[in-house]
Amino acid sequence: MRVLITGIDGYLGWTLAQHLAERGHIVAGADAFLRRKWVEEMGSVSAIPIASIEDRIAAFGEQFDRQLAFVECDFREHSEVVEVLEDARPDTVVHLAECPSAPYSMIDVTHASFVQVNNVTSTLNLLFALRDVCPDAHLLKLGTMGEYGTPNLDIPEGFFEIEYRGQRDRLPFPRQAGSWYHWSKVFDSQNVQFASQLWGLRATDVMQSVVYGTHVPDDSRLATRLDFDEAFGTAVHRLCCQAVIGYPLTQYGSGTQRRGFLSLADSMQCLTLAIEHPPSAGEYRVFNQLRDVLTIGQVADLVRTAAESLGFDVLVEPVQNPRHEVEGHYYNPDSKHLRALGFVPAEPMEAVLKRMLKDLAPHRARIRSRAHLFEPKVLWKRHAGKAVQYMSTPSQERS
Asked: Among all residues, which ones are annotated catalytic?
């Protein structure tokens, strides 16, 4: 199968390219390298050093004995997206070319506007290009479980049956996003659903939970990134990076917030199952992608236990939660569709955390040099008045 990965230079994209190549798929990629610039804007780096795109492509060719077709592309430019699809002629497009950070979108109006314009425009450009160039291709778009928020109901996979005033219907489950970023993903989901109905496109919307884990092959050029700054480092990655340098684990608030989690390896398995089992023409389907539902406090305890088993001295120190979120809440999402396709979770979280800590340990000095970034500075809810200046203008230019 010919698979085009947009955002191939990112955490998931670079790992997925290798996973698919191992399974014999023909992989092509596109990226504008904005993730590298955004992390640099935050004053940070990937905890695990990553190679340039030129070195990555060379290593990919050596590892899999085939060339990785790559093009630099700004998905905010429709003409460039059309050109990429005309060259690749993919059977599947995995769309990862969006800004994936809620905190980044909450810095100020400039960042909020940039994230929404970047994400919604990129997806719209891709939808129109698919219609005109390869309408039979399958679009696998990465969504987020954060679109749903934390309703006091079980969370179905996209749709639910409802009865109101004697009438019944199957409707999209209400979205209650909690950041400007998450609202951009809600808009994406609605646009993809509409395009599928309007033009008969095949689409899978993967509502992804928090993904954690390292990908560090023998050839360091094939390693994927792992961020730990406030904006682009997920809670698990931040806690693991803190653990390896002896920094107190910064649990936000009470730690009773419940979220879904799955390892990087499990994410690769889920995305591959979706790719290899495409929907029918005109079908828009939603998969909730998760393995475990845990509180943030439970995750911090698991990181602490894993770190102590490896000889690290670790403390958990709650800090004031910078986010505007309910901390104690009901959370019970469905996740049956991927399991029906054959998803079988691999290692338990404890084993993955230990391997992560071992992979991060050689980079202690790199992490320690930016330990000041662990203190949250982006406050999601402010009283009226001028916001504190924190970041510069969002990095939008290409290298």
From this structure: 144, 181, 185
